[in-house]
Write a structure and sequence with these properties.
Elements lengths: L1 E4 L2 E4 L10 H5 L3 E8 L2 E2 L2 H15 L6 H14 L5 E8 L9 E8 L2 H10 L1 E10 L14 H12 L4 E6 L4 E4 L3 E6 L3 E4 L10 H12 L4 E3 L4 H6 L2 E6 L3 E8 L2 E2 L7 H23 L1
Parallel strand pairs: 7-8, 7-14, 11-12
Antiparallel strand pairs: 1-2, 1-6, 3-4, 3-5, 5-6, 8-9, 10-11, 10-13, 13-14, 14-15
């Protein structure tokens, strides 16, 4: 693998961080994960806006959108990938206000695996370690991701695929690695507001927009565990999994116990939009 680190492209095993880098020592960093198809970063403007906002919140200088785009495309090309999962990590470096560390890496996407997971659906487990919905960290993708990593490991250790996180009020925040949506009575597509502890996800925003375009009812509303137990469908979203059905929660079937019709409709609509965008790019 070839990575970009502070202005230089080099093999992964030759790339080294300063041992005093605050991103390594303290988790003081922010990141974005971008899905690339046919060498084109998807939802690039939304990712760039969030990264720049997070960098400003952290007090770290962030490259401009045009510079970042060039680095991403060069990193993808250097690894010979047409489809990739690109991770951008930005930290203050060894001291606040100093030279920041910028790392960009590209990994291949296993869409065959993602398709199998989508057809089978995820099994989710509620993890009884509340997240602080009042913390500003919940609004950003921070390198200190231990809370989410630990939750998912606890869920997987108990036979689940993903963890469901509750906030300090006992209401639903999100999943460990994705935003959460529930299809409630009356086919209302609901997701917790960011004030409940949900990350303002790029795919979350896209699904809400898609629902509006399709004439479906959607809303950002506080959700309780009881709401989820009564839900007709549950699904998780992020830019890599896109729209992922959840078929059981805490061992109980969600709805019919299989991927729901609205979940499938939203995924198909998203893919149609992506295909149209890529066609337009190719056509020039």
């Amino acid at each position: 693998m070839i990575v970009y680190l502070n202005g230089v492209f080099k093999p992964l095993l030759e790339a080294s961080l300063d041992p005093t880098d605050r991103g390594f020592l303290l988790g003081e960093s922010v990141f974005e994960t971008i899905r690339v198809e046919q060498a084109q970063p998807l939802e690039y403007e939304a990712h760039t806006r969030r990264l720049q906002a997070s960098a400003a919140w952290l007090g770290v200088r962030c490259p401009g959108a045009a510079e970042l785009l060039e680095v991403i495309q060069q990193t993808v090309d250097a690894n010979g990938l047409a489809a990739a999962r690109v991770r951008i990590t930005l930290s203050p470096g060894s001291e606040p206000g100093g030279a920041p560390t910028l790392l960009v890496a590209a990994l291949p996407i296993d869409d065959a695996l993602l398709d199998r997971q989508r057809m089978a659906g995820w099994h989710a487990l509620t993890v009884q370690e509340p997240v602080n919905e009042r913390s500003s960290l919940r609004r950003h993708k921070c390198g200190s991701y231990l809370e989410q990593v630990r939750a998912r490991r606890l869920a997987q250790a108990n036979g689940a695929d993903e963890a469901l996180l509750l906030n300090t009020l006992g209401r639903v925040a999100e999943c460990a690695m994705a935003n959460l949506f529930a299809v409630l009575e009356g086919d209302l597509i609901a997701t917790p507001p960011v004030e409940e502890g949900a990350l303002p996800g790029v795919m979350r925003r896209r699904v809400l927009a898609l629902a509006d375009e399709l004439g479906l009812d959607s809303a950002e509303v506080p959700l309780t565990p009881e709401d989820l137990r009564k839900a007709q469908e549950l699904f998780a979203t992020n830019v890599m999994i896109q729209v992922q059905p959840i078929v059981t929660l805490d061992g109980a079937a969600v709805g019919s116990g299989g991927p729901g019709s609205l979940t499938r409709q939203l995924f198909r609509a998203h893919r149609a939009d992506v295909d149209r965008y890529l066609f337009e790019v190719r056509r020039g």
